[in-house]
Structures are given as structure tokens and as C-alpha cells.
Amino acid sequence: MESVKSAVNTVLGKGKVLMILSSANTFSDGKPTGWYLPEAAHPYFEFVDAGYEVDFASPKGGEAPLDPSSIEPFIKDDVVAKFYNNQEHFGLTKKTTPLIEIQHTNYKAAFVVGGHGANLDLPTDPNLVELLEKFWAAGKPVSAVCHGPAALVNVKDLEGQSIFKGRKATTFTNEEEEQVKMTHLVPFSAEDRIKQNGGEFQSTKPWGEFAVRDGQLVTGQNPASAAKTGKLVIEAIEATK
What we know:
Layout lengths: L1 H11 L3 E5 L16 H13 L3 E6 L19 H7 L2 H4 L6 E2 L10 E4 L13 H12 L4 E4 L22 E2 L4 H6 L10 H7 L3 E2 L9 E4 L2 E4 L5 H14 L2
Parallel strand pairs: 1-2, 1-4, 2-3, 4-5, 5-9, 6-7
Antiparallel strand pairs: 8-9
Helix pairs in contact: 2-3, 2-8
């Protein structure tokens, strides 16, 4: 059934969405990290079920490291299980394309998957910054969930201004980071950086569902917000037609 749906989507030709994963697999103290399972699974199926093909990319290419702590707490979620237990889907994260090989012209939107890894290697990856600036300049949605917005803090528009400047945005909040006792392990607070970049930071209570779209920019707060973020990306794609 899944292969049939994929074939139908290809025939429909709605285009592709690029999902970006971190290549970082450990914190500075050696604790394992990576991309967060539900933050890939839920948007992935939002895109696929809406008729879009999905490609995965990462800085290093190949297998992108999954944060092992994101499996057990979420595997009873039907969508997460459907993604993780089927190599047609999960297998794509084991053969990601290196970011340097990606052409923005092949995609309708870019989506950065969260997980603490996204706060480590993506913000300063020159290939990612350049790629996302091309998406932005082309008027295409640039999106991220949870720690994913950290990857956008160095992305600028054609005037050299942060894409957050004057726009509504969210990310994993300082309060949430403190609750998981990870504040000392991340190189910077994405919430603080969004504010410093002139963004209009918005959020809901810790662990609540919240995502916001401001034109091309789409961001989600935490794992619970992953599906909603995906829906808003689709809305943004449709608005560009």
C-alpha cells in the first residue's frame, strides 16, 4: 500500500520537500544525541500524505544519527512506529544526501528536523546556510521544529538581514531546555538568538503544541508540534503557487 501511495504521489507531480538532519552524534561530554524521531516522522507523513516526495539530506551524508533517547518514549505513537519500523521510510535517514550536493531548485520547501544535534553542527554549516539562503531568495518556505530553528539563526535575506527579523517564530524554549537539564550542553539558546535577531518570539506552555507561520518562515516549538509544523509548511507551499 505504501509503495502504491508513493507511486501515485510521483505521478501527481506535486514536487519534493527537503528534510534536513543533523550529522552530530554526541555532545561535548560524550553523551549521544542526533535528530529526534517524532520530529521527522510526523512532518514526513504530512508531506507524503499531501502528495509530496521527500528527500533527506545532512552535512556529512550517509546515515544521520538518530538520538537514541527519542525512540522508546515515542515508539507507541502510531505515526512514529509506522516510520521507524518500515525501511521504505526510516531507511531514507540512513542514506542521506550530503548538503553540498543539494540543489534548491529541485524542492518546494526546506524543513530542518529537530533534536539537540541540530543545535550543534547545523547553525555553522556553510553549505546549509548557503542552501537555505537560496531557498529564501527563491521565495520558498524555510521551516524547522524544536531545536531545528537553531539551524536558521545565521540565514540572511537578500538585504543581509536575519530571516527572523520582524517575523513571528518559535523554537524549543529556554524553560523546556531547563526542564530536560540540557542548557549547559547546547552552544547557545535558540530562543535567545531568535530574539537577538529581531524575531517576534512566541510560544505556549512547556511541551504544548505550538507552531507559527509568518510568510515563508515556519517554525514549531517542540516534539508535540511536529505534525502542525508540517501542515503549516504545506500551507506555505500552497500559498506560493
